[in-house]
Amino acid sequence: MTFDISTLFQNIWSMLGYDPNNPLIFNSGLFWVLFLFFLPIYGMLKSRRTQMMIFVVAFSLYFFYKSSGLYFLLLVATSLIDWFIAKQIKQEPTVKMRRFWLTVSIVLSVGTLGFFKYSNFVIANLNDLLHNNFQPLDLLAPLGISFYTFRTISYVVDVYKGKIEPTGNWLDYLFYLSFFPVLAMGPIVRASHFLPQLKENKKPTKSMVYSGFWQALLGVIKKAIFADYFGQYTTIAFGSADGYSGFELAMATMGFAMQIYCDFSGYSDMAIGLGRMMGFDLGINFDFPYRSLNVTEFWKRWHISLSSWLMDYVYIPLGGNRRGKPRQYFNLMATMLIGGLWHGAAWNFVVWGGVHGVALCIHKMTKKPLDRLFPSDNKLVIFCCWLITFIYSAFAMMLLTADMSTAWTVITKSFTDFDLAYLVPFFTARKMWCYLIIIIFALHFVPKKVYNLLSALFVKSHWAVKLVVFIIVVQLVIQFSSEEVQPFIYGQF
What we know:
By secondary structure, the protein is mainly alpha-helical. It is built from 21 helices and no strands.
């Protein structure tokens, strides 16, 4: 038997090089192997700030390269341009010139995002309007461009408003913008929250490392066990909605609501957990959104970093609620439509934003009279508020995966062809799916102190207990996983 060294290097390169069909994502085995090598080196370099930053930036850019190829150079260029513009804004003596540089930054950031993400959407709609045949561009949106664009806009705007000082050197800003735990799908951590931690450069405590590991494990469970298992049915049902009954489509809608929650909050848990293991507090991004009793509360619990960003950088600059009720409703609708379009270049995303905007406006209009009519401490009222909010948000969430035609079929059949006679056959055919749905519902209503207690027990437990928990999670993932690693839903946004 002969050993071919060239074949070995080719195999290593094929695994470590860029493969557009196999991007590097958190729930892949390769990422965790790389992270196991990364973490001890990071720990050794932590006290040497500059060397640590160079190492993390290199790893982050490699992470970007493995997911988007040479587009990682776009992130580098974006960081360099906006770092320079922020310095210029700080140095300019006149408001006019500071506003000029701010405008340049926003136009470049939004223009780049628009080019990669919305060019073909515009071309397709022009073809429909003009009955023409403009050819779509051969474009692939870079990894996380929607997320890091919002982060760079908030940085420059905050420098312009004097809320933060621009970073003293480019490496600090590149570290912030490319930080791999939040690079692909957030949270949209703001510079005002992140950069002071980078400057302080505290070494992570043992409690931070183990609690971060615990949260990352919870994220893996949410994604690889719950979300991917839910998706096995919802993908089939929405793919051929005409062939399913209203009851089955309603179950698929509820299943997708849970799927996208477990998928995205699972990613957020992994990102936040990895960040904590490295000594960074990345905040929270989900706070049990399906506990909400109204759509306003829902948006205080769902994708918190996005909703707060839209509040501070779109809704309030438009005037917020300071210019009377009609203007407030307009501002709410405009903000949610922008939020919908941010998710993707298709009309179903715009409609998704619109239906949430309408619900927010209706809640603002009716809150006071409804509060007078129905006592807020009445259990029946509380249950009805929760049920209406969940059903509305679930059907709205369905628009994030279904085109308009499919969405209309799902909605009309769910409300006109809903027959509880399908309940027993459905449960019999999909027992595990139903059990997992029930578990996720139940976990939503477990008091937070229970989760905090479990995290504290894990942190204090013996290393052997931690190892057993890890092995159990790995075994469950293997047991429930499909043949291929499933991408994150929000990866397409």
